[in-house]
Fold this sequence. Notes:
Layout: E1 2-7, E2 13-25, E3 31-51, E4 54-74
Antiparallel strand pairs: 1-2, 2-3, 3-4
Amino acid sequence: GAKIGYSVFDITGFYFNPTLGVDFALDSRLGFNFSLGYNLQSAVVDSYYYGYYGFYSMSSRRIIGGVTFKFGVHF
Length: 75
């Protein structure tokens, strides 16, 4: 599966989360599943610091990502 979205509130940015998984049924009422994916978020990150001449702020667009692993039991 995949999730795609865009945030329109305080944190704006593109979101993408493709995932591949398998589902194992042990019997008609019990099973488990595994999935592995990657999430990707494009966001504006604000940085603030105090320098020699005063207070400074800076905004930059960053790409933030990570690997996801999910395990589930269903009954």
